[in-house]
Amino acid sequence: MIKLMLHKVFTSLLALIVLFSTVSFTVEKHFCGDVLVDVGVFVEAEKCEMEALETLQKKNCCKDEVDVVVGQDELSMSSIDDLDLEQQQFLYAFTYSLIFGFESLPKQKVPHANYSPPLIVSDIQVLDQVFII
Fold first, then answer.
1. Contact status, residue 31 vs residue 51, Cβ threshold 8 Å
2. Mind listing the pLDDT tens digit for each residue in 111-128?
3. Cross-strand pairs, 29
4. Phi, psi of 17 (to 5 degrees)
5. In what order do the strands lie in the sheet with 25-32?
């Protein structure tokens, strides 16, 4: 039970790691002087009121900073043709023996499956003083 639960947790975790390694996003920051005014993830950061005054006065105290986190573009996928002949033969033999190597036993009828034992009133071995040594 716990082994099955751990298996599900680890496979979900690995799937999330693959998902987040391939996602790209941008983080945009707007500074007014040395003070961080706004941060925007996936959207543009809001500008402050000083930005409108800067266009009139031609002073530059505001600055925008854009950080781009680039995800992985290609996942390495290899085909069977990339393997040499010995590795292909081993892979084929391994999968064949895994699929067809195990045969299940035929279902056997258990004659005493529905048998209920008699109620034990007293321990007969102790009463008769007969012990297996």
1. no
2. 888 888 888 788 888 888
3. 39, 65
4. -65, -45
5. 35-41, 25-32, 62-69
Contact 27, 40 (CB under 8 A): yes
Q: Which two tokens stand for residue 10?
A: 């680890």
Euclidean distance between CA atoms 61 and 80, whole angstroms: 59
Read off the pTM. Answer: 0.42
CA distance 20 to 33: 34
DSSP state at residue 81: G
What tokens does 84 get? 């040499």
The gap from C-alpha 78 to its chain's centroid, in whole angstroms, comes to: 21
CA atoms within 13 A of residue 113's CA, in its CB half-sphere: 4
